[in-house]
Amino acid sequence: MEPGARPRLLLAVWTLAALARRGSGEAGDGGWQRRGPGAPAALAEEQRCAVERRADLSYSEFVQHYAFSRPVILQGLTDNSRFRALCSRERLLASFGDSVVRLSTANTYSYRKGELPHPAAQLASILQAASAGPHQPLPAVDLPFQEYVEHLLHPQDPTSLGNNTLYFFGDNNFSEWASLFQHYSPPPFSLLGTTTAYSFGIAGAGSGVPFHWHGPGFSEVIYGRKRWFLYPPEKTPEFHPNKTTLTWLQDTYPTLAPSVRPLECTVQAGEVLYFPDRWWHATLNLDTSVFISTFLG
Ligand SMILES: *[C@@H]1O[C@H](CO)[C@@H](O)[C@H](O)[C@H]1NC(C)=O
Ligand SMILES: *[C@@H]1O[C@H](CO)[C@@H](O)[C@H](O)[C@H]1NC(C)=O
Ligand SMILES: *[C@@H]1O[C@H](CO)[C@@H](O)[C@H](O)[C@H]1NC(C)=O
User: Listed GO molecular functions (predicted)?
Assistant: First the structure.
């Protein structure tokens, strides 16, 4: 090798690697993960996964094996690459930065009585009943989307209660955000007699909803990763309704005997988790995550 060839080669390799990192960062996380000194750490991923992953599942297999009996993670059902591109930090801020969004606490959703239009709202009222905070619940907070992203989209404080964590999920203004949602392709599996309702959210690492249940539905991760904990309807989990999933994971989860451990798995961007009717579930966003649920009500 001629003198100088090796450094040049190393430089070329380093440059390529740096470009690849940059490229994958932009395409891979939509600009939602902050980098550099002081950037919040993502939560470690648990590799164990007790939920089946199925690629190219047919509708009849879905109905026969999962729809009424167990959760499943669906891969490759729809192509939401356009929707994903529109959900990058930059694009969402450009399109919706001034839109006022309604934030809710991780344990308390505020809906006015008589305004429970879809299953996401039922979830809200269940959460509210299950886990009203120790004091008066925080009212829902309305603020411009840009302010939420710049000031409130931070990792979950592990010492704080769910009643102190504000995040954007499930209280979407569908007329204002229609230009985005029209590009989302929901999983093409419906259940007889149900209608669908979307619930779109963006939340920081370590955030998530504590255990609750409602009707069946799908939850797709657009950016980030979301860890799920699930129990069948007849196995009520051990959990404190006023605590966050993160606290539950740290305090309760390690003490669970094998026979009472949840089904769990981490859903990656582009994957869709299906949860059947009345299955208990808690979620934990491992990164700043963008996600959309399709409730079958
Ligand atoms: C949760 O907070 C509510 C409201 O203060 C309280 O009534 C309830 O007892 C708490 N739940 C538990 C299990 O401590
Ligand atoms: C949340 O619960 C904590 C612990 O009981 C309490 O000190 C705090 O005031 C509550 N915060 C709100 C906003 O309700
Ligand atoms: C949704 O947004 C539109 C347009 O900004 C607004 O007029 C309407 O009041 C909003 N709806 C709700 C329920 O906030």
Answer: cis-regulatory region sequence-specific DNA binding
